[in-house]
Each structure stands twice: as structure tokens, then as C-alpha cells.
Amino acid sequence: MSLLQTWYGLSDYEVEEKVNDSLSFMKFVGLTLEDNVPDNTVLSRFRSELTFKQGYEKLMDMINGQLEEKGNNSSASNRKYLKSKGLKDGIMHKAVKNKPLSNHQVRFNKIVSQIRFRVERTFGGIS
């Protein structure tokens, strides 16, 4: 749940509510409909204990590093798959350390982000 808080900018209370309301959030944290969701005080105590023991930042850095590494490989493999099937590549480009996006990639991302905004706004309003 701490990861969801970090990625979505949620408070303890908000992440508790989201996990209660969203099946995808519930599945991500490994809970089922029958399980009780930890309340916001549990999250606060967990984060406080990790911070006190100087483990919170290290844990987040390790997890985010692994996700970035996997994400970069995943985009490359997804692009290859799309090309092999003759499908249009609509995956946004991501800059990495010491390798900024080209002007073409920046323009491409701007076009794709406008489409994503319309789609995600529609589905975001449903939940």
C-alpha cells in the first residue's frame, strides 16, 4: 500500500479508501474481497517504524529502481511485439539518465499524451 501511496500521491486515509473501492488496488496488495484492508493508522505506524530504522528510503529506492529497470526492458519488448504483429507503436518514450529524449520523441509523446488524456479521463470518471 505504501507503493500505491507513493505512485499516486495518496494519504494514508486515501489509500485505505482506494484499496477498499478498487479491485485493481486490492489485487495489487494481495487482498481479496473477504480480507480486511489495513486501516490508515497501521500504514502510518509501518511507515514510521521503517523511517525510524532508516529503511523506508532504501526500500523505496530499491523497488523504484527495479521497476524502472523492468519498465525500460518492458517497453522495448512491447515495441518489438507490436512491430512483429504489424501494429502501430503508441507507447510513450521515457528519458533515462544521461540520455534525453530527441525532439521527435518529445513531439510524439505530446501527441500520444493528448489521446491518453481523453481515454483516461473517460475511464477515470467511471470509478
Can you describe what's shown?
With 127 residues, the chain is mainly alpha-helical. It has a domain at 92-127. The chain is built from six helices and no strands. It has helices spanning 2-8, 12-21, 23-28, 40-52, 56-84, 103-126. α2 crosses α4 (40-52). The relative contact order is 0.07. The model has no long low-confidence stretch (mean pLDDT 83).
Topology:
Layout (H helix, E strand, L loop, with lengths): L1 H7 L3 H10 L1 H6 L11 H13 L3 H29 L18 H24 L1
- Gap from first CA to last CA: 19 Å
Strand portion, in percent? under 5%
Order of helices and strands: HHHHHH
Q: What is the radius of gyration computed over CA atoms, rounded to a whole number of angstroms?
A: 18 Å
Please outline the major beta sheet.
none
Question: What portion of residues is helical?
Answer: over 70%
> DSSP helix count?
6
Low-confidence stretches: none
Q: What is the structural class?
A: mainly alpha
What is the total tally of β strands? 0
Short note summarizing the structure:
It is built from six helices and no strands. With 127 residues, it is mainly alpha-helical.
